[in-house]
Amino acid sequence: MLRFSYVSDLEAYRELLPDATSAAERYFPPVDDLDAASPEVFELVELAVNGTPQKIRRRVCNEGQVFTCNLGSDVKIDDAVTVSYTYRVLVQQHGRVLHLDLAQPTKDFRAELWYGDCGIRHMNVVDYLSGPRQPQHTHLSTSDPGTVRRSV
């Protein structure tokens, strides 16, 4: 089972940090009419194990929202698996830094950032990824001037 939690309660967030059953936990302080339970704030769009899409369940609670997904009945406890997932997140504007935190060791990590039509004209990437290969950054243009992508 994998669990992704988005909470607006700082104490609930701190309790999730050492929890080994949590795949990812994020704190989203309430802003205006948005809190961590708002669907606009976070959505786990898809998750696959060894290339097989898995069913995702969403549960809303007082602290925020939790997405859970079973790894599948054919996965044994000592099996190595490839987990891939896509999510949407609302990033609060606190300055000019977007930090991606990789909670688990990863292989062939890839991230795509779309920042068209939101006032950002340029993005610099500073990576702190360690591994045998040097990270590659690519600026991808599209035919739509409102859509700009950066692949990391």
Number of strands: 10
Would you identify the regions where 5 or more consecutive residues have pLDDT less than 50?
A: none
Class by helix and strand content? mainly beta
Distance between the termini: 28 Å
Order of helices and strands: EHEEEEEEEEE
Count of individual helical segments: 1
Largest sheet: 4 strands, mixed
Percentage of residues in helical conformation = under 10%
Mean pLDDT: 78
| Physical arrangement of strands within the biggest beta sheet | 2-1-6-5
Report strand %. 25-35%
Rg: 17 Å
State the shape. globular
Architecture blueprint of SSEs:
Elements: E1 2-7, H1 10-16, E2 24-27, E3 42-49, E4 52-53, E5 56-60, E6 64-69, E7 83-89, E8 112-114, E9 138-140, E10 149-151
Parallel strand pairs: 1-2
Antiparallel strand pairs: 1-6, 3-4, 3-7, 5-6, 8-10, 9-10
Question: Can you put this structure into words, describing what you see?
Answer:
With 152 residues, the protein is mainly beta. The chain contains one helix and ten strands; from the N terminus they run E-H-E-E-E-E-E-E-E-E-E. It is globular and about 45 Å long.
Structural key phrases:
3-stranded antiparallel sheet; globular; 10 strands; 4-stranded mixed sheet; 1 helix; mainly beta; 152 residues; single chain
Task: Give a brief description.
With 152 residues, the chain is mainly beta. The chain contains 1 helix and 10 strands; from the N terminus they run βαβββββββββ.
